[in-house]
Amino acid sequence: MRYLIEHETVLEYPRSVREHHIELRLAPRSDGHQKVLSCIIETEPAAELASYNDYFGNRADYFCVIQPHNRLVTRLRSEVETLKENPFNFETIPPLEEFEWLHKAIRLAPPVNDFVLHRSMLTPTAMKLAEAIECAFPRRDKDRPLLDSLLELLAWVPTVLTYSSGSTEVHGALTAAVRQGSGVCQDFAHLFITVARSWGIPARYVMGYLDPGISKVGETLATHAWAEALVPGAGWIGFDATHNLLANDHYVAVAVGRDSYDAAPQRGSFKGDYAGEQPSVTVTMQEQ
User: Fold this and answer.
1) Is 272 exposed, middle or buried (0-12, 13-18, 19+ CB in 10 A)?
2) What are all long-range contacts of 235-238, with beta carbons under 8 Å and residues at least 24 apart?
3) Hey, where are the domains in the chain?
4) Same fold, 2-82+265-287 and 95-257
5) Model's pTM, two decimal places?
6) What is the mean pLDDT of each run of 10 residues along the chain (288 residues)?
7) According to the model, what pLDDT value does residue 166 have?
8) Which of 25, 92, 106, 172 is most buried when burial is the number of CB atoms within 10 A of its CB?
9) What's 194's DSSP letter?
10) Distance (Å, rounded) from C-alpha 163 to C-alpha 185?
11) Correct CATH for 2-82+265-287 of 3.90.640.10, 2.60.120.200, 3.90.1170.50, 2.60.40.2250
């Protein structure tokens, strides 16, 4: 699939702010599953952008607006070709050999340990989560392929959380979402990741875009979130618990991390007396 993505974020302030430092993770990833054909980022007021690759391999763009301003706009326009048509297309490994496959993968790439060991209020310990949840966790059956257990986990998450736009705060605690029984795509991804890590499986958070034809009723077109787990024989496979789907070529990955803090599309700081309103975000995604 080939998509044209446009993403605009508008920040407005009641009084002028200055020395505004912004870091963006908006440029889609370029890897074996997708190709970035073009990517343009513009700002208003105009600023000179620089970029680097962060610890997780995401492209981070950053800039600074020194002069006083009441409004800051960032715009992305990117064309991406996605290649992962069938996520089940890989050579399976016998269940009894999967544990050794994972251990070898971690030995060869020690940073993968971050996706097993990391805990935060977004991806808490299993014990902390158990205090907030009423039903039992799904269990990994080591006599069956890991993918089977992960698919059961994928189907289990929506039994705990109901999708409700705006029901939780950005980067809000997972236990709060679980207690109220509702959340947004970030909460669904964090719940999947938390349980997968309790099994000792590397799992990471993905921020990106989803073909609007798959979106839920009432789901505003914006950035989307899902989880990825390291599956023996396949590598990283995406699990979209919000829609109970495996990620395929209808998904465009932008940034990955241990949780949503690592993959925030925009963050910044400035000098001024007022924090301003919540950002206004407009996203369009068109199949080419």
Assistant:
1) middle
2) 235/90, 236/204, 237/87, 237/147, 237/150, 238/87, 238/206
3) 2-82+265-287, 95-257
4) no
5) 0.94
6) 96 94 97 95 97 97 96 97 94 94 95 97 93 87 94 97 88 93 96 97 97 72 93 97 96 98 95 84 94
7) 84
8) 25
9) H
10) 7
11) 2.60.40.2250
CA neighbours within 13 Å on the CB side: how many for 156?
Answer: 21
Cα dihedral 248→254→260→263 (10° resolution):
160
Nearest alpha carbon to residue 209 among 134, 148, 281, 137: 281
Q: Give burial (CB, 10 Å; 0-12/13-18/19+) of 250.
A: buried
- What does the pLDDT read at residue 220? 66
List 209's β-bridge partners, or say none.
252
